[in-house]
Amino acid sequence: MIIIIFIVLSYSMLFVPAASSVSTIKVGDQLNITPKLVSPATNFTLGFFTTPDSTHTYLGIWYTDDQQSRKVWVANASTPIMSTSTVLMIDPVTAKLIISTQGTTLVNISDNESGPTHSNLTATLYDTGDFQLKNETDNKILWRSFDYPTNVLLPGMKLGTDLRTGRKWTLTCSLNDEIPNSGAFTLSWEPNQRLMIRRRGQPYWTSGDLNNQTFKFMTLNSPFYKYSYNLSYTDNDEETSFSYHSLNGVRPMWILTERGQIFDGENSLYFSFHEFCYGYDLGNGCVAGTNLSACRSADDKFTLLSGDFAPGMTERTYVDDSSLSFSDCMVRCWNDCGTCLGFTTGANGTGCASWIGAKSVKFSGDPQGNSFPKYVIVSPESHKGNDAKILIWAPVVAVIFLLFFCFGLLWYCKTRKFKREEKRQKDDDRHMLELMDSSDTERGGRKGSDMVVFSFAAIVTATNDFSDENKLGQGGFGPVYKGKLCDEREIAIKRLSRTSGQGLVEFKNELVLIAKLQHTNLVRVLGCCIHGEEMMLIYEYMPNKSLDFFLFDETRKVLLDWPKRWNIIEGIAQGLLYLHKYSRMRVIHRDLKASNVLLDESMNPKISDFGMARIFKQDETEAMTKRVVGTYGYMSPEYAMDGTFSVKSDVFSFGVLILESVSGRRNTCFSFHDKTVNLIGYAWELWQEGNALQLQDPTLADSCVVHQLLRAIHVALLCVQENAMDRPVMSEVISMLSNDTMLLHVPKRPAFFFGTIASKSTLVEGKLECASISNITITQMEAR
Ligand SMILES: *[C@@H]1O[C@H](CO)[C@@H](O)[C@H](O)[C@H]1NC(C)=O
Ligand SMILES: *[C@@H]1O[C@H](CO)[C@@H](O)[C@H](O)[C@H]1NC(C)=O
Ligand SMILES: *[C@@H]1O[C@H](CO)[C@@H](O)[C@H](O)[C@H]1NC(C)=O
Ligand SMILES: *[C@@H]1O[C@H](CO)[C@@H](O)[C@H](O)[C@H]1NC(C)=O
Ligand SMILES: *[C@@H]1O[C@H](CO)[C@@H](O)[C@H](O)[C@H]1NC(C)=O
Ligand SMILES: *[C@@H]1O[C@H](CO)[C@@H](O)[C@H](O)[C@H]1NC(C)=O
Ligand SMILES: *[C@@H]1O[C@H](CO)[C@@H](O)[C@H](O)[C@H]1NC(C)=O
Ligand SMILES: *[C@@H]1O[C@H](CO)[C@@H](O)[C@H](O)[C@H]1NC(C)=O
Ligand SMILES: *[C@@H]1O[C@H](CO)[C@@H](O)[C@H](O)[C@H]1NC(C)=O
Ligand SMILES: *[C@@H]1O[C@H](CO)[C@@H](O)[C@H](O)[C@H]1NC(C)=O
Fold first, then answer.
1. Which of its termini does the chain have fewer beta carbons within 10 Å around, N or C?
2. What CATH homologous superfamily does 543-781 map to?
3. What is the pLDDT of residues 251-267, one digit of tens each?
4. C-alpha torsion 8→11→16→18, nearest 10
5. What is the pLDDT of residues 20-34, one digit of tens each?
6. Residue 591 catalytic?
């Protein structure tokens, strides 16, 4: 009997907390540190919570089923509670909602001047997330949490001004993710019907006009978003306010972040386009600064980099002031004219560490990310720490350039002399042989930086007279053969057929280019051979063929595990960066694709086929062509449609390559379920839904490093954005790939230019077709 009573007792005791899933407290009730209030339909929970460093306790509200327990409201965030013996109650004497400990009021949560002492008051948490103190006798709301927003705007919550009382409804950001104390930014609704973010009271950003359910400088209600919002505003004698409702969301919340952006907790995206506003960039809603420091150039930006300044050249100072948050540190550094080079905040996101030094002090990147990352002011033309590469390559390039020039001159003289001679064909060979001899002597042991002119006879022997079994494949401008020189060296020979369309112009182009380009991730040209009308390029031989040979083959793709693919992605990025930036000339490849990425014996990638590459002068950034060359599926929309190309066209192709490497599927011949999107579109949809991991090639299941994979997909989506201006440059791509902590922008809609290739009815045909499409380079296309 006693046992039964005991069981019954303990049973009921166990369920006391569960049974306490009440939504209302009355006068006399006390809610202590463990039990929570839960709204009637269980949408929201209210209770005490403790910060991760377990020093401070707050009273807050959160979505009951939010895995991250993001707080949508915090009571009196600037007065944290240190004691654990605190209770929430309605003070019967003052008729206020209070947090008290052992009979002492710590905080008056509600601020109304006390009415007469009264006992018929309740405080209720509603399913809207609103917590209200009510006088039950006349059903009047005495206080409500919606009137005191913190950093989250919930559906139905107002931003604006109550004109009767003068109360302003504004969001204030928290100090950081963990500490809810007020930070530097506020979000308000302005009389001119715009949202405005202020930084310490100064206008910082505006949303632009509200139009057709979206704001000019916010991405709202994009058809690609899973959830959408119904925006509304009120403008009358009583109030001017803005609010929204979620049409299909589960846990809608708009969060004002501690870095002054508006974050959509539902879609996990930033609504606003800006990352930081500097006062000079006005295109994305940023407000012109009144105090644009004269010492900063109008393109300087803070970038999170891992690495260090040259040792001994900077002084690190630390201001231990817990009221200074990220953005205060940034502004202090920005305004510290000429001497502040970079900053970070202290460990809990407060306090500022700055690096002080001369502007010229070099920053060396640390791709491994071992050193403490910091925000460094980067001017667009500074080299982000890769200057060392230029120093290494410059002499090499110079030597090759010189050598090439000499050869060119020699060759030119010889041909002219030779033209006067009659025995054309025979002398051709002899001439090449002579050149080879002279180059051998001239080389004088400068191994590795030489370019050889091969005799036609040597090439014929090496390839067994261009026999079919030595044929490696068909390049854009002619067949490629494998060959073996008498010294056992293996070479690849690209034979440029007379009918191929690659004339002397392209040949010279490629020769000039390749001779000057030297990088581990670019295929190396060993020499050339000219035989009458026929021209040949001799490359180093790549035993593992090209990337597409492995990537798109069900059995061979297993050989490319994730570390190899990551290495390939990084290698291509380095090769492209070199082409775009460090190769002395600005080279645009224009035909980057999986079949133009060759693999050496250890699967290191090497970019090949420069037949269509274009050299830009350093000051030239964009060009137009009537002759659109490139490959279907890799061509950026602006290039394919208007013939405009820039480094960003290569970036686009690179983004496609990443997606292909991650998924093991071709961009062009892709269909899933019944939808007719290409790989880019599919990746975008998955990413929008938060399911980007599904893009992963199933064969990567064992070797995959999830955060790297997701980062790769994120970077890829940034690279394939519709607007070329939005795409990053290769140096940024490399920092993004190599730096795990670097903040990435939210990609905008990608170009869906090839979205309708595999239509449902022609799926079988489409498959056949795409196998050929994706391999063949389009050399002529009508420009519009
Ligand atoms: C709370 O409000 C009462 C008056 O209603 C005041 O006497 C008291 O000092 C306040 N307590 C705190 C901690 O602000
Ligand atoms: C607590 O918050 C209320 C608003 O809910 C405010 O009126 C009051 O001044 C705050 N008290 C403190 C001590 O911050
Ligand atoms: C509650 O309402 C009753 C009836 O209107 C009123 O007498 C009382 O003063 C109110 N109490 C408070 C705290 O406002
Ligand atoms: C509460 O949650 C349910 C289910 O998620 C939802 O249908 C309902 O609209 C929510 N109520 C409010 C007031 O948000
Ligand atoms: C409290 O208010 C309710 C609703 O008006 C009323 O029915 C009830 O009698 C009141 N209780 C007291 C103690 O005044
Ligand atoms: C208390 O404040 C609310 C607004 O938050 C207001 O509507 C109400 O009239 C006030 N009540 C008293 C008794 O001052
Ligand atoms: C408003 O936006 C919708 C899509 O969000 C679009 O279909 C419609 O044409 C737009 N209307 C105007 C007037 O811009
Ligand atoms: C949006 O809200 C307005 C008023 O709040 C309402 O009239 C309209 O029907 C809503 N639109 C949708 C699509 O729910
Ligand atoms: C502008 O700079 C001056 C001095 O440098 C400073 O006192 C003032 O607060 C700044 N104003 C703004 C809007 O930052
Ligand atoms: C952050 O840390 C510093 C010491 O590093 C401390 O003084 C400060 O109180 C902390 N701030 C908060 C809000 O926890």
1. N
2. Transferase(Phosphotransferase) domain 1 (1.10.510.10)
3. 999 999 988 999 888 77
4. -140
5. 579 999 988 999 888
6. yes
